[in-house]
Amino acid sequence: MNQTINPPPGFDEASGLRQKSRAAGMDPDYWYAVEEVRNVKPGSVVEVIFWKRSIALYRTADGEFHAVENRCAHRQLKLSLGQVEGCRLVCGYHGWEYDEQGRVVGIPDLFGRKELPEISIRRYPVQVRYGLVWLFPGNPELAEQRRIPDIPEIEGRDRWACVPITFTCTAHHSMIIDNVSDFSHAYLHRKYRPFDGATLTRCETEGDDVHLAYDTQVGRGPISGLFVDHGRLNTNHIELCYQYPYQWSNTDDEIKHWLFVLPIDERTTRTFFLFYFKSLKIPLLPVRIPRFAMTAVMKVSNRLLIGPLLDEDRVAVEAEQLGYERHWDAPSIEVNPVVSAFQRVTVRKWQECLAREAESGNAAA
Asked: Which of the four CATH numbers 3.40.190.10, 2.170.150.40, 2.102.10.10, 3.90.79.10 does domain 32-142 have?
């Protein structure tokens, strides 16, 4: 994590802020979504990466999730190249076995030694929620204090329909946060029209959160507009928040989403979108789609509407990443103040993280 985020000398304040934000990692002392539950079958192991740190996420035969450093203490091979046997993660090279605490609990050949050596690797706290697997890559003593965001609408018996959308984007995580909450890019989505005519009515930073709101026409596209009951809902206003390190939006308490980003490195980010609706209506009829059918509708919507819409954003931010790498020294010109607000929080949180790491290193020395 030892990384400078200072821009070259002579940059104006806005350009310097952009430079710092595009180099920043994310504070590991939060819960991060790392994978969809459905993608990790019982008895399998996968590699996940949090800011250049490789972690082996595995699921035991009984369905429990665990995570450890992705290296065997013996020869440093990635444990994600091994396999899961029962409740143990086994290195594919010499068959060393690890338990859920990261301790070596089995070595096939001890060459005459009577007892196993006391060897362990780091383990990471894991939770499962909203169909996602979450890791806490930071100080494990803080894992109980920090919470995964509560989304009561998609839990419990009367939960709203929600089907996660996940993809990896070749762009820095700050570009994705900028994109999702900066409604000045309506032109990009002129085909689907998820919002039109956005006027910023609030931009306020409170601690680590940036609250914003727009007066805008939500869900007026040629397809999406057929499913939204504009006569019943106020879809002319939307509230959003960059609730570091997460992002959410709310339209009239009935159309909502959360975005969880997993920073992999300076130019790679995995995104987990949760869109959920209290109800949708049957096109051309003033009748709501039955609750039992909403999940099936969401699956179709993700494939035919929301997915292609997000793909437009993905293409744009990946192009922005390439443009930034080629023209990193170009002046920063932003018309929407929310972007600078996001970047200031991102930079400050990363600087605080680096300061903690330096202080911890000095204390250890």
From this structure: 2.102.10.10
